[in-house]
């Protein structure tokens, strides 16, 4: 039956959402007509909307719900801590057990820092954006403290994603994070995306492509002046930029350039950390020894907001000297190391240990990667299937031979996502119509098959439409 013309277009909750909420990453003019999809509960790898329909979450929400959408142990950890100490801060040398225990746990699990040395200290924030913003401030403070006030420039990569604060949004290399925000600010630069499929020259091997990108970085540092360039930011695997797997020898060659010019390496492990790539850290998967490591998302399995910055002993010593000269290290957040998220994060790490998460992901990730290749590599609309561990992408192309991309004006990505919703799978289609695959790490092999079948059904429908 067709509803009458005067029937309300949205239910009460949706109407109130349109009236009062300002959503992130949303076209708000269009939103007034489309309204929200309201999610009411979660269980396992699925979330359920207010009509009761379930959706497999193919990207774990925003790459973050590693243990799925319900876990009694994490809920109990939060409740227990709320009963004991619901809040205290870490300003002025104050502390509490969850902050101390989590700091120790992260240092014990951390990869090797620069020169093969252990990381030294941990600073806590509330999001990946804040962690990377804090890292930038640490770098600037450190160089001031050791007498290098000109060494402040920061290098990111085109399509890299490091957050949305003014500073982290500037090192991010995404147009949507720059347009109309007056970003990037001065002193931030970007080098090429390390995507061999998309940007290699005809006949160029992965190794040759990596050498060319390392030379580009070297040339930029020399052109700007090594005494002015402070740090290079990189995700071991680019996430929001399209799930870009680095070409062979890339990080080996990039790190050699950075060491030559005494430029710090910041590894953004916000997506890759805690087993996603088949090792505990993406740095271990790709042979990176950074000066600073940032992490968030899977640190608490996304149950509560928390992020961390781990720094080398060299940086810590500089910050310590600078804080003495300035009278304090004047940086921090009210909720830095908040006891409740810290307690949940600690319980999350215990669960990862019990599940032997890197080993689990290495096995189940191999299954995912093969299943993706088998299901999509020969599809007439697919140009490349790529991935590592439990993260991957399916990139559309109108012509496999030329590796061409579809005109963004056709909006095939949003259409594919919409078809996915109809089939019962939450999708995130990124730049160049690349569908990200990054499900909860607890997903089973039968659930992987079901997820890919639903994504494939949506893709088949898209192929019929175009």
What descriptors fit this protein?
Aspartate Aminotransferase, domain 2, 2 domains, alpha/beta, 4-stranded mixed β-sheet, single chain
How would you portray this structure in words?
Keywords: Aminotransferase, Pyridoxal phosphate, Transferase. Pfam families: Aminotran_3. Belongs to the class-III pyridoxal-phosphate-dependent aminotransferase family. By secondary structure, the protein is of the alpha/beta class. It has two domains: 37-70 and 357-465, Aspartate Aminotransferase, domain 1, CATH 3.90.1150.10; 75-355, Aspartate Aminotransferase, domain 2 (3-Layer(aba) Sandwich), CATH 3.40.640. 41% of the residues lie in helices and 15% in strands. It has helices spanning 12-20, 28-34, 60-63, 72-84, 97-109, 128-145, 166-171, 196-199, 206-224, 250-260, 282-286, 313-326, 339-355, 357-376, 412-423, 445-465; strands at 39-43, 46-49, 54-57, 121-125, 153-157, 188-191, 229-234, 264-268, 292-295, 307-311, 382-388, 391-396, 425-426, 428-430, 434-437. The strands form three sheets. It has a seven-stranded mixed sheet, with helices on both faces. The longest helix has 21 residues, at 445-465. The two termini are 30 Å apart. The model has no long low-confidence stretch (mean pLDDT 96).
Mean pLDDT metric: 96
Largest sheet: 7 strands, mixed
Can you count the helices?
A: 16
Domain tally: 2
Widest β-sheet, arrangement of strands: 4-10-9-8-7-5-6
First and last CA, distance: 30 Å
CATH superfamily of the largest domain: Type I PLP-dependent aspartate aminotransferase-like (Major domain)
Q: What is the beta-strand fraction?
A: 5-15%
Radius of gyration over alpha carbons? Answer: 23 Å
- Extended strand count: 15
The helix fraction, in percent, is: 40-55%
CATH topology of the largest domain: Aspartate Aminotransferase, domain 2
Low-confidence stretches: none
Cofactor: pyridoxal 5'-phosphate
Family: Belongs to the class-III pyridoxal-phosphate-dependent aminotransferase family.
GO molecular function, one term: transaminase activity
Protein name: Aminotransferase class III-fold pyridoxal phosphate-dependent enzyme
